[in-house]
Amino acid sequence: MKAVLLTEIGKLEVKEIPTPKPGKDELVIKMLACGICGTDRHILLGEHPAAMHLVLGHEFGGEVTEVGEGVDFKVGDLVSVDPNIVCGTCDHCLAKRTAHCRNLAALGVTLNGGFAEYVLLPKSQAYLVPKNLNPLYLGLVEPLACCIRGMDLAQVKAGDRVAVLGGGSMGMLIVQLVKLAGASEIILITRQKERREIAMKLGATSTIDPVAEDVTKILKDIDVSFEVAGVSQTFQQACAITRSGGTVLVLGVAPSHETVQFSVYDLLIRGLKIIGSYINPYTQGRAAELISSGKLNLDLIISKTVSLDELPAVLAANPGQGDIKYIVTGDK
Ligand SMILES: [Zn+2]
Ligand SMILES: [Zn+2]
Predict the structure, then answer these.
(1) 231 Cβ neighbours under 8 A, 6+ residues apart
(2) Residues labelled catalytic
(3) Are residues 244 and 223 in the same domain?
(4) Are 178 and 247 in contact (CB under 8 A)?
(5) Are residues 221 and 271 in the same domain?
(6) Coiled-coil annotation: which residues (predicted)?
């Protein structure tokens, strides 16, 4: 089968590798959609740890083509995939902090993932979706699951004023989730005009261009701020605009070497809650349900589809102006 492998830092190659066979409690799916994520770029640049000679891609789903013994899924079922595999037996897993599992493995990060024609996965990682679902949406279930986890931790309440700092796919999903949660104001902050326009169509009540205007002068007393850009400056802005006792929810993946200065005194006096939300424990099923329900507008988020052959060049380049999410599709 065809697969895109990370052969060394900075290098992705399209290669032929053996098509996987399912063992007990495993299944193989034909990849129908796999989202390209900022994390994939970080991995390619050596800014996020990953295994070498590995098939990247952790935001995917597809059609079941083969099942091993002990698997209830049927050939032809459509499934979304939770890429994060936890051990279930370490101290964090036993305490239901599975995002911090000491033996965490992840399809597309430490095990072969979705940038391939076929993918092998344990049955525990597959979530059934309706057969008539637009298969492209399978590339957005995992990022949505991460956003739902962020929502759970942020505890947005009806009537809250919410700021979303960053206009990528996570930002666009968070805008829609906080709208569903009843936020009274949803302010999206991003540099790109095209993205600000899309955010308004998805439920933002206003937007700010952080280059033209000083975010920290315009906004204050925000109840919940979501940092979804993975940039130290937006983190600082998020802290500055959030009210005393409010929540700064960090969802954006910053480069692992990036650090930020902030006032510990300010944190103390204002009682800020700064919460990191990592991956998607216990939320993949809800994400699959929500996407299947049709309540989210995903078509405005998917900017382009990419073939496996095109992927190395696309991932090496910067995304186009105004583009939000690229989805790799399987070969027809
Ligand atoms: Zn991702
Ligand atoms: Zn564990």
Answers:
(1) 166, 252, 254, 258
(2) 39, 42
(3) yes
(4) no
(5) yes
(6) none
The full length of the chain comes to 332
Residue 16, beta-bridge partner list: 2
CA of 96 to the centre of ligand 1 (A): 22
Q: Collapsing DSSP states into helix, strand and coil, what is residue 261?
A: coil
Strand, coil or helix: 173: helix
| Contact criterion met (CB below 8 Å) for 303 and 176 | no
**Is residue 135 over pLDDT 70?**
yes
Write out the H or E segment, with its range, that includes residue 40: helix 38-44
If we measure between CA atoms, which residue out of 102, 21, 34 comes closest to residue 68? 21
Nearest to residue 34, comparing CAs of 14, 56, 54, 59?
Answer: 59
Find the CATH number of the domain harbouring 43: 3.90.180.10
271 and 309, same structural domain?
no
Q: By residue range, what is the domain housing residue 208? A: 150-276
Token readout for 237 is 């802005």
Q: Which ligand is closest to the CA of 36, given by its number?
A: 1
In this prediction, residues 26-38 reach a mean pLDDT of 97
How many domains would you assign to the chain?
A: 2
Summarize pLDDT for 74-87 with one digit per residue, the tens: 999 999 999 999 99
pLDDT digits (tens, 9 = 90+) for 22-31: 999 999 999 9
Q: What is the Å distance from ligand 1's center to 105 Cα?
A: 14
Cα(39) to centroid of ligand 1, in Å?
6
Collapsed DSSP state (helix, strand, coil) of residue 265: helix
Please state, in angstroms and as integers, the Cα–Cα distance from residue 80 to each residue in 68, 128, 137, 307, following that order.
18, 6, 9, 19
